[in-house]
Amino acid sequence: MSDFWFALLLTIFAGLSTGIGGLLAFHKKASSHTFLSFSLGFSAGVMIYVSFVEIFVKGKDALSQSYGVKTGYIYTTIAFFLGILLIGVIDKLVPEKENPHEPKDPDDFKFKEKTLLRMGLFSALAIGIHNFPEGLATFIAALDDRTLGVGIAVAIAIHNVPEGIAVAIPIFHATKSKKKAFGYAFLSGLSEPIGALIGYLLLRTFISDSLFGFVFAFVAGIMVYISIDELLPTAEKYGKHHVVIYGLLAGMGLMALSLILFM
Questions:
Q1: pTM for this structure?
Q2: Which of 50, 73, 126, 131 has its CA 20 to 30 A from that of 184?
């Protein structure tokens, strides 16, 4: 299989894992505080570990080869914080009630059907906005290094599962249709492969080791921001502190194991 198709399939897998969340939303445990606390902590653990241990280091190595050790490290650091800035701005532009990184407490689903449907549809739209740069990052990483691409895809896929739940639950409560709830959750992840293809078409003439380095550092910043600013605080809101920590450590452990297995 060519590198292009391998990278695209990985990106599709990562993006459409929101559909898994759509399926889990119909299970009563999926809407429990314990499940949400653990799953969000798990996602944060995966993303924080892979960002600092693998992605940031990969970006620094690439940029150090192109610009020298000190300058390369400076560029890596700048790209890292630019990633944080970008996702921070996106979060500011997305209303909190529709933010996919703010899963709603199932006890809050006591609104009118139109309100719930709007909540689910806006969550799907917001997820599309958030996932666009993630898709490009997965795709570019897999083009350069299949092992790293798999690691990033796994991290983003796990992260996308709770987002699928955030879309499916309000739509299901509003429409009473599992088919519609799953469909919207599944389709909300399409922005990742779309983002990958658009980004590739725009950047393919500029692809180089230094570009890979900037992209790696950039996405590391995005993933760390999402984990620290959104996933962990939201998980803590459910009052399951130790469950969050267990999920965080389990996510780090799984990511560490997956990186070792694919070395």
A1: 0.70
A2: 50
